[in-house]
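Figure caption, in words: inputs first, then the predicted bound structure.
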Amino acid sequence: MTNTTVVQAANLTENLESSLKKPLLGVNIDHVATLRQARGVSYPSPLAAALLCEQAGADGITIHLREDRRHIQDADVYEIAEQLTTRMNLEMAATTEMLEIARKVKPFWVCLVPEKRAELTTEGGLDVAGQMPWLTDYIAKLQAVGIKVSLFIDPEDKQIAAAVTCGADAIELHTGAYAEAGLVCNIDKMNAELTRIKQAVRTAQDADSNMLINAGHGLTRDNVYAIAQINGIYELNIGHALIADAVFVGLEQAVIMMKNAMHQSA
Ligand SMILES: CC(=O)[C@@H](O)[C@H](O)COP(=O)(O)O
Ligand SMILES: NCC(=O)COP(=O)(O)O
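Bound structure (LD2JLWAY present):
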């Protein structure tokens, strides 16, 4: 373990206590890379974005190294890992190729997510219950080199129970259905999804009090408050909407605005 990792681990324990009331903000910077890849040039730099987000108060940086490399590239992962002062959360599919990369980079967190080639963004949660032997072994191989492992799952009892059995250090509850209901102003559906997420947090707490509970996907300044108020959520990972805000107000201000939205109702 490097000195940085020891400090990060100590901070994690400390943060766990305080964040039970106030979730942390992990900023997903995939779409800084999307903009760069649109032209195949070297700017804007995801590394510069990550460092600016940290300066503005982000508690961690999330990047998703997709198998098709549509945004974040391998070089970004190595470069960002070297220079972050908070924690990297590396999202990836549970493939053999990604396992090798993660074991070299050693991010603080790996978050295992499902991937489909044709999707615009992650459509559903990982089917942990359907691939228990593979994931149990995969998680152990990451943990063996000191990486903490999170599983991106739908808020379903079956998946939560499977995540505990597989030995995950954390789960990240997929908030996409809640966010999509808000986009089409379906308030009943939004409330039902919120209830489902709250219930999932309770189920996870009852199943394993040491497992961290994160949430994310599709969160915006308009819909984040209700999720951030749920007791027991450790961290929210937010990307697309925050980067969209940054186009108008700048990245640092967008981070500050998102943190404010998490802590006070609009
Ligand atoms: C797993 C998840 O919800 C997202 O963070 C994911 O990274 C989305 O992928 P895109 O950034 O490619 O939309
Ligand atoms: N895991 C969710 C995430 O990192 C950000 O998702 P989004 O805000 O880009 O939808």
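The first helix runs from residue 3 to 19.
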